[in-house]
Amino acid sequence: MGAGKNRFVAQKVPLRPRAIWSTSRFQPKLLKRSYKVSFPVQIDEKVNVDKLISSIKSRDYTIGIIGLGYVGIPLALAACRAGFNVIGFDIDQARVDQLNRGESAIKHISTIAIDEAVKNKRFVATSQFDRLTDTDCIIIAVPTPLSKHREPDLTYIEKTAETITQHLRKGQLVVLESTTWPGTTDEVMRPRLEQSGLRSGIDFFLAFSPEREDPGNEEFSTSTIPKVVGADGEDALRIARAVYDALIVRTVPVSSSKTAEAVKLTENIFRSVNIALVNELKLIYDKMGIDVWEVIDAAKTKPFGFMPFYPGPGLGGHCIPIDPFYLTWKAREFDVTTRFIELAGQINTSMPHYVVDRLAEALDRSAGTGLSKARVLIIGVAYKKNIDDMRESPSLRLIEILEARGAQTDFHDPHIPVIPMTREHSALAGRTSISLSHSAVSGYDVVLIATDHDAVDYKALAASARLVVDTRNACARRDVVSDHIVKA
Ligand SMILES: NC(=O)c1ccc[n+]([C@@H]2O[C@H](COP(=O)([O-])OP(=O)(O)OC[C@H]3O[C@@H](n4cnc5c(N)ncnc54)[C@H](O)[C@@H]3O)[C@@H](O)[C@H]2O)c1
User: Fold this and answer.
1) What is the set of active-site residues?
2) Taking the domain 313-487, which CATH number applies?
3) Prediction pTM value
């Protein structure tokens, strides 16, 4: 495609009369209609960036969000609150239907907010991707897991890019938010999108803006967490900033998409390495009879140069155990080994084994029995407190290791009544949470606190339990202290 030449292009032209759009609020049915025509498109006709920015400011601008999960739904709600009309896209029809009924698909996300957005016709969910032509901006929040061989699995991003390519139209902004290795937006997204015949930075605009969502964190929400934005060129950056400026407390522009991608990985690698460090300190201090929690609480009174991280039974979630290995993989292309990242991974993945060893020792000391045939009650299978997300949760590893050593396990989790199907722990799917009562708890040889949900009464739990192994300092933090509570 030569720059400066006009050509005939088949384009999907949405039937979207501006007059109707701007006077009658959100019209999902109207928006749905589009038809294919062939007509001469002046591909060298420059998109008017100032005009796009004023339509963002006047909210005559529709935001599309692909991937309606932990990231996509809060983002959609933030955009609705900021006065935009939002179309959410997902391949999961059940999730689409649930959202269109005004119901939350995720426990900590308010049903009220979704219901309100649907009733006000600000938000509609769909699995019909031809409706991408009805949007002015497309934000992508699809999963980025690791493959079986622990390498980046970009199939969700690739498929999404290919779908967008079929519907891409002039002037649209495409923003990738999924966490990924530096270079993905330029090397994976851009070439696919340009197969549409449109050019990045001229006909459409491309950016990367990492998500910093922290589910369950009551202090921060999507719109109050500053957002980093990097883009393919000046115009793309201006447009992407204008969109996020309207939604988020502060946007932080960086020089390129790959810098923005590196920012996200750096944040998560920083966490992974520091958590590994305190996990290692826990092993050393345990042997020395020093309480690592007391050490951290005292150290954090230093007003500069120290930031507290806390040990635990291992890493969980969709981010910290996974994202660092996106950089490890990409670094190989540059002949660099990521020793810190891999060492942190080794320490963190060894923690469930350490916890089980400590639990076996504690059982031996308190009851003179080993693990074999011991009845163990695990408190919490979510990967962190107060949420219903159990992706990569260390509790699942704890159950597997305990059972491989002959123990019988049950679990209690106020947020997860049934263990769902997971790729790596499918044998545990369908197990159900038991209710806590004095007679139930006292029947177990040991209670293992793996997640410190606030909804658990730790005082009552400790009073009923024969032995407690606490990996989160959940009891001591609530002044529940006793000889039969062991930290691990
Ligand atoms: N969950 C978080 O707190 C968090 C925080 C920061 C970054 N991230 C990153 O954000 C991205 C999304 O994570 P998430 O936790 O929201 O994932 P999620 O699994 O909760 O949601 C992803 C959604 O995408 C949908 N989906 C999958 N393939 C699709 C496709 N081809 N087209 C349309 N929809 C598709 C799924 O059905 C699902 O509803 C990941 O890269 C993750 O690493 C997540």
Assistant:
1) 319
2) 3.40.50.720
3) 0.89
